[in-house]
Specification:
about 325 residues; globular; Apc4-like_WD40_dom
Length: about 325
Protein backbone atom coordinates (compact mmCIF):
# COMPACT_ATOMS: atom_id res chain seq x y z
CA UNK A 1 0.00 0.00 0.00
CA UNK A 2 1.50 3.33 -1.05
CA UNK A 3 0.05 5.58 1.63
CA UNK A 4 1.95 4.59 4.78
CA UNK A 5 0.96 7.79 6.61
CA UNK A 6 -2.72 8.32 7.63
CA UNK A 7 -2.91 11.80 6.10
CA UNK A 8 -6.72 11.84 6.12
CA UNK A 9 -6.72 11.73 9.93
CA UNK A 10 -4.31 14.66 10.36
CA UNK A 11 -5.04 18.36 10.87
CA UNK A 12 -3.45 21.81 10.51
CA UNK A 13 -2.58 24.42 13.15
CA UNK A 14 -2.30 28.16 12.56
CA UNK A 15 0.55 30.46 13.66
CA UNK A 16 0.05 34.24 13.71
CA UNK A 17 2.40 37.17 14.12
CA UNK A 18 3.10 38.49 10.60
CA UNK A 19 1.21 41.78 10.49
CA UNK A 20 0.36 43.93 7.49
CA UNK A 21 2.63 46.95 6.95
CA UNK A 22 1.53 49.96 9.00
CA UNK A 23 -0.37 47.91 11.59
CA UNK A 24 2.59 47.52 13.95
CA UNK A 25 5.41 49.82 14.95
CA UNK A 26 7.77 47.40 16.64
CA UNK A 27 8.70 45.02 13.84
CA UNK A 28 11.22 43.09 15.90
CA UNK A 29 8.69 42.11 18.54
CA UNK A 30 5.53 41.86 16.48
CA UNK A 31 6.76 40.04 13.37
CA UNK A 32 6.92 40.73 9.64
CA UNK A 33 5.06 43.79 8.38
CA UNK A 34 4.34 42.30 4.95
CA UNK A 35 3.46 38.93 3.43
CA UNK A 36 5.56 35.82 4.07
CA UNK A 37 6.70 34.52 0.68
CA UNK A 38 8.65 31.44 1.77
CA UNK A 39 9.65 29.47 4.84
CA UNK A 40 12.01 26.59 5.63
CA UNK A 41 12.79 24.34 8.60
CA UNK A 42 16.21 24.27 10.25
CA UNK A 43 17.56 20.82 9.18
CA UNK A 44 19.33 20.31 12.54
CA UNK A 45 16.74 21.78 14.91
CA UNK A 46 13.26 20.49 14.13
CA UNK A 47 11.57 23.18 16.23
CA UNK A 48 13.07 26.13 14.33
CA UNK A 49 11.70 27.65 11.14
CA UNK A 50 12.97 30.57 9.03
CA UNK A 51 10.77 32.95 7.03
CA UNK A 52 11.45 35.35 4.16
CA UNK A 53 9.21 38.38 3.72
CA UNK A 54 8.54 41.32 1.45
CA UNK A 55 9.41 43.61 4.37
CA UNK A 56 13.13 42.96 3.52
CA UNK A 57 13.73 40.89 6.66
CA UNK A 58 14.53 37.23 7.29
CA UNK A 59 13.39 35.83 10.63
CA UNK A 60 14.02 32.72 12.70
CA UNK A 61 11.11 31.35 14.74
CA UNK A 62 10.56 28.76 17.44
CA UNK A 63 7.51 26.77 16.29
CA UNK A 64 6.84 25.66 19.87
CA UNK A 65 6.37 29.14 21.27
CA UNK A 66 5.63 31.11 18.10
CA UNK A 67 8.33 33.63 19.09
CA UNK A 68 10.85 35.24 16.73
CA UNK A 69 14.40 34.61 18.01
CA UNK A 70 16.53 36.26 15.30
CA UNK A 71 16.15 38.56 12.32
CA UNK A 72 18.26 40.15 9.60
CA UNK A 73 17.31 43.09 7.39
CA UNK A 74 18.50 42.72 3.79
CA UNK A 75 18.52 44.99 0.73
CA UNK A 76 15.34 43.94 -1.09
CA UNK A 77 11.95 42.24 -0.90
CA UNK A 78 12.76 38.63 -0.03
CA UNK A 79 10.88 35.90 -1.87
CA UNK A 80 13.00 32.73 -1.48
CA UNK A 81 14.86 31.08 1.38
CA UNK A 82 16.61 27.75 1.99
CA UNK A 83 18.94 26.14 4.54
CA UNK A 84 22.25 24.44 3.81
CA UNK A 85 21.92 20.79 4.82
CA UNK A 86 24.19 21.14 7.86
CA UNK A 87 22.17 24.11 9.13
CA UNK A 88 25.10 26.54 9.11
CA UNK A 89 24.02 28.80 6.23
CA UNK A 90 20.77 30.24 4.87
CA UNK A 91 20.41 31.43 1.27
CA UNK A 92 17.90 34.17 0.45
CA UNK A 93 16.76 35.47 -2.94
CA UNK A 94 14.93 38.75 -3.52
CA UNK A 95 12.82 40.34 -6.26
CA UNK A 96 15.91 42.05 -7.69
CA UNK A 97 17.52 38.66 -8.47
CA UNK A 98 20.08 39.13 -5.73
CA UNK A 99 21.37 36.17 -3.72
CA UNK A 100 22.39 36.65 -0.08
CA UNK A 101 23.88 33.89 2.06
CA UNK A 102 23.79 34.31 5.83
CA UNK A 103 25.83 32.65 8.57
CA UNK A 104 23.13 31.25 10.87
CA UNK A 105 25.22 31.57 14.04
CA UNK A 106 25.66 35.33 13.62
CA UNK A 107 22.61 35.74 11.34
CA UNK A 108 24.63 38.10 9.13
CA UNK A 109 25.39 38.03 5.36
CA UNK A 110 28.62 36.37 4.25
CA UNK A 111 28.02 36.27 0.44
CA UNK A 112 26.10 38.48 -1.98
CA UNK A 113 25.69 38.10 -5.74
CA UNK A 114 23.48 39.85 -8.30
CA UNK A 115 22.36 37.92 -11.40
CA UNK A 116 21.38 39.34 -14.79
CA UNK A 117 18.49 36.91 -15.22
CA UNK A 118 15.39 35.99 -13.23
CA UNK A 119 16.39 33.86 -10.24
CA UNK A 120 13.72 31.94 -8.37
CA UNK A 121 14.08 29.20 -5.75
CA UNK A 122 17.45 28.04 -4.45
CA UNK A 123 18.79 24.78 -2.98
CA UNK A 124 21.96 23.07 -1.79
CA UNK A 125 22.63 19.38 -2.37
CA UNK A 126 22.83 17.17 0.71
CA UNK A 127 26.60 17.55 1.13
CA UNK A 128 26.47 21.32 0.66
CA UNK A 129 29.07 21.57 -2.12
CA UNK A 130 26.60 22.03 -4.97
CA UNK A 131 24.11 24.91 -5.26
CA UNK A 132 21.05 25.06 -7.55
CA UNK A 133 19.27 28.11 -8.96
CA UNK A 134 15.95 27.89 -10.80
CA UNK A 135 15.49 30.59 -13.44
CA UNK A 136 12.80 32.31 -15.47
CA UNK A 137 14.48 30.91 -18.60
CA UNK A 138 13.26 27.39 -17.82
CA UNK A 139 16.74 26.30 -16.72
CA UNK A 140 18.36 25.04 -13.55
CA UNK A 141 21.80 26.52 -12.98
CA UNK A 142 24.21 24.26 -11.08
CA UNK A 143 27.00 26.05 -9.17
CA UNK A 144 29.90 24.88 -7.03
CA UNK A 145 29.80 25.95 -3.38
CA UNK A 146 31.24 28.01 -1.75
CA UNK A 147 32.89 29.42 -4.90
CA UNK A 148 29.52 29.79 -6.74
CA UNK A 149 31.30 28.98 -9.99
CA UNK A 150 29.09 27.58 -12.83
CA UNK A 151 29.14 23.79 -13.32
CA UNK A 152 26.15 23.04 -15.57
CA UNK A 153 22.96 24.46 -17.09
CA UNK A 154 19.98 22.11 -17.31
CA UNK A 155 17.14 22.80 -19.77
CA UNK A 156 14.42 21.68 -17.36
CA UNK A 157 11.07 23.08 -18.61
CA UNK A 158 9.59 24.96 -21.57
CA UNK A 159 8.41 27.70 -19.20
CA UNK A 160 10.08 29.41 -16.23
CA UNK A 161 11.27 27.25 -13.34
CA UNK A 162 9.93 28.58 -10.05
CA UNK A 163 10.87 26.10 -7.33
CA UNK A 164 13.21 23.23 -6.44
CA UNK A 165 13.52 20.61 -3.71
CA UNK A 166 16.30 18.12 -2.94
CA UNK A 167 15.61 14.49 -2.02
CA UNK A 168 16.86 14.13 1.59
CA UNK A 169 18.02 10.52 1.09
CA UNK A 170 21.53 11.53 0.12
CA UNK A 171 23.83 8.66 -0.80
CA UNK A 172 27.19 8.85 -2.56
CA UNK A 173 27.41 6.64 -5.67
CA UNK A 174 30.12 5.59 -8.18
CA UNK A 175 31.22 8.07 -10.82
CA UNK A 176 29.49 7.79 -14.21
CA UNK A 177 30.79 8.66 -17.64
CA UNK A 178 28.63 11.81 -17.68
CA UNK A 179 30.61 13.40 -14.87
CA UNK A 180 34.00 12.12 -15.96
CA UNK A 181 33.46 13.69 -19.39
CA UNK A 182 32.05 16.93 -18.00
CA UNK A 183 34.04 17.89 -14.93
CA UNK A 184 37.63 19.17 -15.00
CA UNK A 185 40.26 16.48 -14.41
CA UNK A 186 41.47 18.18 -11.25
CA UNK A 187 38.10 17.47 -9.66
CA UNK A 188 39.16 13.87 -9.01
CA UNK A 189 42.03 15.05 -6.80
CA UNK A 190 41.11 14.20 -3.19
CA UNK A 191 43.16 17.16 -2.00
CA UNK A 192 41.43 19.62 -4.31
CA UNK A 193 40.40 22.73 -2.38
CA UNK A 194 39.72 24.97 -5.37
CA UNK A 195 35.99 25.17 -4.75
CA UNK A 196 35.27 23.10 -7.88
CA UNK A 197 32.99 20.12 -7.30
CA UNK A 198 34.56 16.70 -6.87
CA UNK A 199 33.08 14.04 -9.15
CA UNK A 200 31.69 11.98 -6.27
CA UNK A 201 29.95 14.94 -4.66
CA UNK A 202 27.33 15.13 -7.40
CA UNK A 203 25.84 11.81 -6.28
CA UNK A 204 24.82 12.63 -2.76
CA UNK A 205 21.08 12.57 -3.48
CA UNK A 206 18.88 10.31 -5.56
CA UNK A 207 16.67 13.03 -6.93
CA UNK A 208 15.81 16.67 -7.09
CA UNK A 209 12.44 18.05 -8.18
CA UNK A 210 11.63 21.22 -10.11
CA UNK A 211 8.28 23.07 -10.32
CA UNK A 212 7.48 25.20 -13.36
CA UNK A 213 5.09 27.76 -14.81
CA UNK A 214 3.91 24.99 -17.15
CA UNK A 215 2.07 23.47 -14.10
CA UNK A 216 4.36 20.41 -14.05
CA UNK A 217 6.68 19.08 -11.36
CA UNK A 218 9.66 17.21 -12.83
CA UNK A 219 11.70 14.62 -10.93
CA UNK A 220 15.40 14.41 -11.84
CA UNK A 221 18.04 11.73 -11.30
CA UNK A 222 20.92 13.77 -9.92
CA UNK A 223 23.54 11.22 -10.94
CA UNK A 224 22.73 11.55 -14.65
CA UNK A 225 20.98 14.95 -14.59
CA UNK A 226 18.02 13.42 -16.46
CA UNK A 227 14.27 13.80 -15.89
CA UNK A 228 12.73 10.49 -14.81
CA UNK A 229 9.11 11.42 -13.95
CA UNK A 230 6.58 14.24 -13.92
CA UNK A 231 3.72 15.04 -11.53
CA UNK A 232 0.64 16.52 -13.18
CA UNK A 233 -2.00 17.12 -10.49
CA UNK A 234 -1.81 20.93 -10.53
CA UNK A 235 -3.40 23.12 -13.21
CA UNK A 236 -1.71 26.43 -12.38
CA UNK A 237 1.99 27.41 -12.34
CA UNK A 238 3.77 25.47 -9.59
CA UNK A 239 4.89 27.88 -6.86
CA UNK A 240 6.39 25.55 -4.27
CA UNK A 241 7.45 21.92 -3.72
CA UNK A 242 9.04 19.90 -0.90
CA UNK A 243 10.20 16.32 -0.19
CA UNK A 244 9.30 14.84 3.20
CA UNK A 245 12.09 13.61 5.51
CA UNK A 246 11.97 10.02 4.25
CA UNK A 247 11.99 10.99 0.58
CA UNK A 248 8.76 8.99 0.17
CA UNK A 249 6.40 11.91 -0.50
CA UNK A 250 6.53 15.22 -2.33
CA UNK A 251 4.18 18.14 -1.65
CA UNK A 252 3.41 20.72 -4.34
CA UNK A 253 1.18 23.79 -4.50
CA UNK A 254 0.10 26.62 -6.77
CA UNK A 255 -2.96 28.82 -7.23
CA UNK A 256 -5.04 25.64 -7.11
CA UNK A 257 -6.90 25.66 -3.80
CA UNK A 258 -5.20 22.55 -2.46
CA UNK A 259 -1.73 21.23 -1.65
CA UNK A 260 -1.02 17.92 -3.38
CA UNK A 261 0.96 15.17 -1.65
CA UNK A 262 2.20 12.46 -4.04
CA UNK A 263 4.21 9.26 -3.75
CA UNK A 264 7.66 9.92 -5.23
CA UNK A 265 8.18 6.46 -6.73
CA UNK A 266 4.75 5.94 -8.28
CA UNK A 267 3.86 9.56 -9.02
CA UNK A 268 0.35 9.02 -7.63
CA UNK A 269 -1.44 11.54 -5.43
CA UNK A 270 -2.09 10.21 -1.91
CA UNK A 271 -3.65 13.26 -0.21
CA UNK A 272 -4.72 16.85 -0.84
CA UNK A 273 -4.85 19.60 1.81
CA UNK A 274 -7.61 22.19 1.14
CA UNK A 275 -6.50 25.85 1.01
CA UNK A 276 -8.35 29.15 1.01
CA UNK A 277 -5.81 30.97 -1.16
CA UNK A 278 -2.85 30.45 -3.49
CA UNK A 279 0.16 28.98 -1.70
CA UNK A 280 3.60 30.63 -1.63
CA UNK A 281 5.53 28.02 0.31
CA UNK A 282 5.28 24.42 1.53
CA UNK A 283 8.04 22.80 3.57
CA UNK A 284 8.22 19.42 5.32
CA UNK A 285 9.78 19.21 8.78
CA UNK A 286 13.26 17.55 8.63
CA UNK A 287 12.34 14.88 11.19
CA UNK A 288 8.56 14.46 11.19
CA UNK A 289 5.65 14.37 8.74
CA UNK A 290 4.69 17.95 9.57
CA UNK A 291 4.12 20.22 6.57
CA UNK A 292 4.41 23.99 7.07
CA UNK A 293 2.67 26.14 4.47
CA UNK A 294 2.02 29.85 3.88
CA UNK A 295 0.03 31.63 1.20
CA UNK A 296 -1.91 34.69 0.11
CA UNK A 297 -4.61 34.41 2.78
CA UNK A 298 -6.54 37.65 3.34
CA UNK A 299 -8.49 38.86 6.35
CA UNK A 300 -11.99 40.38 6.17
CA UNK A 301 -10.46 43.72 5.16
CA UNK A 302 -8.62 42.04 2.24
CA UNK A 303 -5.24 42.64 3.88
CA UNK A 304 -2.55 39.96 4.11
CA UNK A 305 -3.17 37.81 7.18
CA UNK A 306 0.55 37.12 7.61
CA UNK A 307 -0.01 33.63 9.02
CA UNK A 308 1.42 30.21 8.30
CA UNK A 309 0.03 26.81 9.16
CA UNK A 310 1.45 23.37 9.96
CA UNK A 311 -0.33 20.20 8.78
CA UNK A 312 0.20 16.80 10.36
CA UNK A 313 -1.16 17.04 13.91
CA UNK A 314 -3.53 14.36 15.21
CA UNK A 315 -5.82 17.05 16.61
CA UNK A 316 -6.53 20.58 15.36
Amino acid sequence: MEETVPFKNLHSREYQGHKKKGKVKDVELKGHNDSVDQLCWDPKHAELIATASGDKTVRLWDARSGKCSQQAELSGENINITYKSDGTHVAVGNRDDELTILDVRKFKPIHKRKFNYEVNELAWNTTGDMFFLTTGNGTVEVLAYPSLQPVDTLMAHTAGCYCISIDPLGRCAPTTSYLLDYLPKRCSDKNNHSGVLSAASLYCARYFAVGSADSLVSLWDITEMLCVRTFTKLEWPVRTISFNHTGEFIASASEDLFIDISNVQSGRSVHQIPCRAAMNSVEWNPKYNLLAYAGDDKNKYQADEGVFRIFGFESA
